[in-house]
Design a protein that fits this description.
By secondary structure, this protein is mostly beta strands. The chain contains 1 helix and 8 strands, in the order αββββββββ. Helix content is 10%, strand content 36%. The strands form 2 sheets. The protein has a 4-stranded mixed beta sheet, with no helix packed on it. Strands 3-8-7-5 form a 4-stranded mixed beta sheet, with no helix packed on it. Bound molecules: 2-acetamido-2-deoxy-beta-D-glucopyranose (4 copies). One of its GO terms (molecular function) is oxidoreductase activity.
Length: 166
């Protein structure tokens, strides 16, 4: 009887400690490529931006997530977006270099980048991959560990994204 109780207790503890299976999420973003006037050193200059922001929006995902980014080009330049450092294991067509994995997205057109974030975590960046447009069309990609997993370092007091542009 004692051994049966022990067995049941073991089963219960195994059940209660089994991690809850977490579904990989789909993270959707909308990137509108628009020209915007900005003032720098007293002069207004038109620059190409994503959603009118410079640097552009940050993409947040967890390892294992699927990321879907609908890019619509309202600028007069053809464009493509490259997810720098992101391993595109079975979605090479979503890598972004113009004339290598895709034709550029022409003015007035959209292209949907659809990729899985596999086996990676950390902070990377995305940028335009055609002509000189990356100078203003860029932003961060933050990949957090899977739900319930921690970073391989103690919890920091705060977080900040730093993007260096030249
Ligand atoms: C930027 O400013 C110029 C000069 O004032 C103007 O002609 C142009 O339409 C503006 N462009 C945008 C996108 O606001
Ligand atoms: C992408 O966004 C554009 C502009 O909002 C829209 O017309 C198009 O239907 C979207 N594409 C998809 C696949 O959702
Ligand atoms: C955009 O791409 C199309 C098709 O390749 C090309 O005909 C057009 O000249 C390009 N536009 C610019 C501004 O480079
Ligand atoms: C992403 O992963 C899911 C699940 O494994 C798979 O069904 C889907 O085809 C993958 N998508 C891409 C774009 O590789």
């Amino acid at each position: 009887m004692a051994s049966l109780f022990f067995f049941l207790a073991l089963v219960v503890s195994l059940l209660s400690s089994s991690p809850i299976a977490t579904e990989a999420a789909v993270k959707r973003y909308k990137f509108e490529i628009v020209v915007k006037n900005v003032s720098r050193l007293c002069h207004a200059k038109p620059i190409v931006t994503v959603n009118g922001r410079f640097p552009g929006p940050t993409i947040y995902a967890r390892a294992g997530d699927r990321v879907v980014v609908n890019v619509t080009n309202h600028a007069q330049y053809n464009i493509s977006i490259h997810w720098h450092g992101l391993k595109q294991f079975r979605n090479g067509w979503a890598d972004g270099p113009a004339y290598i994995t895709q034709c550029p997205i022409q003015s007035g057109s959209s292209y949907v980048y659809d990729f899985n974030v596999t086996g990676q975590r950390g902070t990377l960046w995305w940028h335009a991959h055609i002509l000189w447009l990356r100078a203003t069309v860029h932003g961060a990609i933050v990949i957090m560990p899977e739900e319930g997993q921690s970073f391989p370092f103690p919890q920091p007091h705060g977080e900040a994204e730093i993007i260096l542009g030249a």
